Amino acid sequence: MSESLSPAPSPAPDAGIPAEMCVERMGRATALARELGARGVVVPSGMLLQYFTGMTIDSHERLSCLVLGGERPVLLTPAVDTPQVDAALGVEQRSWADGSSPYAIVADVLGGGAGPVVVGQDLTANHVLRLQALVGAEMLLAEEALAPLLQIKDPAEVAALADAGAAIDRVHAAVPALLQPGRTEAEVAAQLRELILAEHARVDFIIVGSGENGARPHHDYSDRVLAPGDMVVVDIGGTMPSGYCSDCTRTYVVPGGATHPRLAEAYEVLRAAQQAALDAVRPGVPVARVDAAARDLITAAGFGAEFFHRTGHGIGLSTHEEPSIAGDNEQLLAPGMVFSVEPGIYLDGLGGARIEDIVVVTDTGVRRLNSRPRTLDGRAEAPASNPTAAD
Q1: What is the pTM of this model?
Q2: How many angstroms separate the CA atoms of 67 and 75, rounded?
Q3: CB 196 within 8 A of CB 203
Q4: Containing domain of residue 207, as a range?
């Protein structure tokens, strides 16, 4: 591959997001807000601030935010937390001292007018209420108002998420060897933590749900001892140096014993349901149809009541983003959307199973960003069958 002779873009602070890309994103967000008739955008510290500036700022209860909509972007931070900002971002820095009002500064940047103000969901209620009282404007949720920008990942973001998917796949490749009779969930989780850190900058979560614990979708891990034939849900994820996240679930069986027949049946249904949902992903399809593809198959097989969460969620700089892959979401899929497809079946008191892959919508269909086998032993898989199909 030949190398470009153009100068490399300068990275924004704290992340591998080029400053030029941050400037473009701020411009697009400002334009989208204007199309809505909004006075501007208030981006609080958190995922959105990292998205627009490449920076992470933790000012605790004090207000830190990026304000878009004026002559130039303004980064407002407490005087005790004033960061060093890359000049290439073109951001004006302002600080406020304890005892003064940061909301007055935000209102000044936004200017007068009757339009609404777009705010990020990480802006806490105490800040929202004080700001709203001062500017007297309707507040719009940035994650919805800026959806055309935030939900459509650019090629660099897709590449970063693909790298994250490959990293967590390498961790899952080691999981079957860890699941041995006599070990505890906590012992397995401790080793998973080391493996995730070897591939990521940070561990975000670890779920090791064996036996009856597998029927709790958000189980953490415990001192339960793995037994032969146990079904084990392993849901793991981390954050890469790029700031983008991984998230992948596989269900395994502890060797040396037979799996409960009802769980084995549920797993085959689940494999087919996840594949049905994957097959439903393509541009122009309502999100709800992806959820229905998995849910209808699971329901037809008699496990409908045991699938009680949405089919997936968006992912990017945060593990959970929009779009929500749920039955009430009529939003149309578009190329560049990245989200999880993760149906689950949970049999109370017996166990559960979940299979999760991150996918990106392409111009013609879907591309999986995870490639580990979806088999109970972690070995190469045969095509999933449809247990509800006629003979």
Answers
A1: 0.90
A2: 6
A3: yes
A4: 151-368
